[in-house]
Specification:
Elements (H helix, E strand, L loop, with lengths): L1 E11 L4 H6 L10 H13 L1 H6 L5 E10 L5 E2 L2 H12 L8 H5 L3 E5 L2 H15 L6 H6 L9 E3 H6 L6 H9 L14 H22 L4
Parallel strand pairs: 1-4, 4-5
Antiparallel strand pairs: 1-2, 2-3
């Protein structure tokens, strides 16, 4: 089985910041005006983190991809979608020999069913980019490993542990250096992303006997 390991890093979609903040409301149990104001201000202060993990309000800042044992590389969204389409999007029942071989490709991620794939899909839709949308949607089905192995789902089975934790336990890796996603440079972010792709692929190979 050929593998396409993917990881993305995100940031707030600056065009949607005003819309996002306009939706911040205090719970109805809050009656005091000052407490309501304090609640809203607190939520606004955490705007970057909230928007960065919201599939509708974030923007992709960095994409790492690894084809089988090839070194991980940084690609654009358009390049990633072309790679996915070339490898895994079989367009008809009369598929060519090349397309039938594509059935032997599987996407590998860590939390890709809830994060990477939905964000890739929404980002493509926002920008009017041609993409294998039906495949991307089907790749988010829970516990379906035919198209996509989400290692967080497969290993954790409902219990959350981070990629860093699993790689320390099963691969003997050192803890990853801390990174400030708000202040880091693009180069630092890309290095972090590529490292995550390589670790995800190593973890996939460790658990392959169970698949």
């Amino acid at each position: 089985m050929n593998t396409l390991t993917i990881d993305i890093e995100t940031e707030p979609d600056s065009k949607l910041a005003d819309l996002f903040t306009s939706r911040i409301k205090a719970p109805k149990i809050y009656k005091d005006i000052e407490k309501i104001k304090a609640y809203v201000e607190e939520k606004k202060a955490d705007l970057t983190k909230q928007m960065s993990v919201d599939v509708d309000f974030c923007s992709i800042k960095c994409i790492g991809v690894k084809e089988n044992d090839e070194p991980a590389k940084i690609v654009t969204l358009e390049e990633l979608l072309a790679i996915i389409s070339n490898h895994v999007d079989v367009k008809s029942e009369m598929a060519s020999e090349y397309q039938n071989r594509a059935l032997n490709w599987r996407v590998v991620t860590f939390n890709g069913k809830h994060f990477d794939c939905p964000i890739i899909t929404r980002q493509a839709l926002k920008n009017g980019i041609t993409a294998p949308y039906k495949w991307l949607k089907e790749a988010t089905k829970r516990y379906d490993t035919g198209k996509h192995i989400d290692l967080m789902e497969f290993i954790g089975d409902g219990e959350y542990k981070s990629l860093d934790t699993y790689t320390q336990i099963y691969l003997g890796e050192e803890p990853k250096p801390e990174i400030d996603f708000v202040t880091c440079s693009q180069e630092e972010l890309e290095t972090h992303c590529l490292n995550d792709v390589e670790l995800t692929y190593k973890l996939y190979n460790k658990f392959k006997p169970l698949m």
